[in-house]
Amino acid sequence: MTDLLPVYHHTGLETSGGATRVARLIMDGLVEAGGEANLSFELAEKADGAAILPEDFGRYLPRQAIGHVHCSGNWPALLGNIRSRNKLVITLHDCELFTGGCPYPLGCANVDADCAEPCPRVFPESSVLRKAKAEQVRRLKPALVAPSRWLARLAKVHLFQPVTVIPNGIPWPERAPSKPEARQALGIHPAARVALFAAHGGMDAAYKSGDVWQDLWVALKAHVPELVCFAVGGDREERVGDLIVWPYVEREKLTLLMAASDVLLYPTRADNHSLVILEAMSCGLPVVAYSVGGVPEQVTDQMTGLLVQPGDKASFVEAGSRLLKDPGLIRQMSGEAFVSGRKRFPVERMVADYMKLYGRLG
């Protein structure tokens, strides 16, 4: 039985999203250890779902409890109603807490100029919003957490607060799922080469380069004629030759697709510590990705996948082709991805790290 204070988690979405999944995993681990945990959210995604306004989290947060915030659609309102005597943890799942509105700056010079207006991305009152968030962080002095060292460095520069790095973790199976069994379940030929794109939003996912998935697929198909590709996560379903586009699928189906694939193609333009990459590794799936954000902290180049320079589509296609043409390399990277990921990113390690942090606050 743990003697930790109750922990009240708060996130934006009710069911989907990496922040919500991380919150639920931490909660499950805390409850399993005998602690108490609760979850509130701002946007209901189920017909019968209930949500609270951002300003209500602070009003309902008991004095003898730890508030753990993962994200919000209105940071000033949420933080402004939390009492300074409350113990508060904020996990940064993106950069929005210290920008004028954008989740990732992507090299925007205005970030280093306090989001001076006019905002190049047309976020309204970006400078005012950024200052309001910074003022609340200074007032509350929360324990800040970042899943990646990359984001921790940025947050320290812009928020002038220490940041603890706690990498994300997920439940890890005892062994990687069987590729032949997964292919049989999906009706995929055992000898096919199979690639997978996956992101919430699919081809409309701007930060995940969804707008160029089809271009990358066409180029890869020219190099690997036997290639079959799945593009998952959008809002439509269609098939164009050997490119199969699927909408959002439940985690069980995504795991089956990952188990049946040879490589995850992940041309993200910006990322913190992607759960999609962790899920791929837990299926023994090598990753080809741009070397951005926290991705190099997850994917070890030439060992668990291949990393290329950000935005270099030609090099991305070359890396993907090289891997898809070499079954021996796929097997080697598959084994390494599963084993190293199980050591570095198990959910038990993540939960233990957060419990240590809660213990210091309590």
Description:
The chain has 362 residues and is of the alpha/beta class. It has 2 domains: 7-169 and 347-361, Glycogen Phosphorylase B (Rossmann fold), CATH 3.40.50; 179-344, Glycogen Phosphorylase B (Rossmann fold). 38% of the residues lie in helices and 18% in strands. It has 12 helices and 13 strands. It has helices at 18-32, 54-60, 75-80, 126-140, 149-159, 179-186, 213-223, 251-260, 275-282, 313-324, 327-344, 347-361, and strands at residues 7-13, 37-43, 66-69, 87-91, 143-146, 163-165, 193-198, 227-234, 238-240, 243-247, 263-266, 287-290, 305-308. The protein has a 7-stranded mixed β-sheet, with helices on both faces. A hairpin with a 2-residue loop joins strand 9 and strand 10 (243-247). Helix 1 crosses helix 12, helix 7 (213-223) packs across helix 10 (313-324) and helix 9 crosses helix 11 (327-344). It is globular and about 60 Å long. The model has no long low-confidence stretch (mean pLDDT 93). This is Glycosyl transferase. GO terms for molecular function: transferase activity. Pfam families: Glyco_trans_1_4 (PF13692). Keywords: Transferase.
Draw up the topology in text.
Layout: E1 7-13, H1 18-32, E2 37-43, H2 54-60, E3 66-69, H3 75-80, E4 87-91, H4 126-140, E5 143-146, H5 149-159, E6 163-165, H6 179-186, E7 193-198, H7 213-223, E8 227-234, E9 238-240, E10 243-247, H8 251-260, E11 263-266, H9 275-282, E12 287-290, E13 305-308, H10 313-324, H11 327-344, H12 347-361
Parallel strand pairs: 1-2, 1-3, 3-4, 4-5, 5-6, 7-8, 7-11, 8-10, 11-12, 12-13
Antiparallel strand pairs: 9-10
Helix pairs in contact: 1-12, 6-8, 7-10, 9-11
Keywords: Transferase
Organism: Pseudodesulfovibrio portus
Pfam family, one: Glyco_trans_1_4
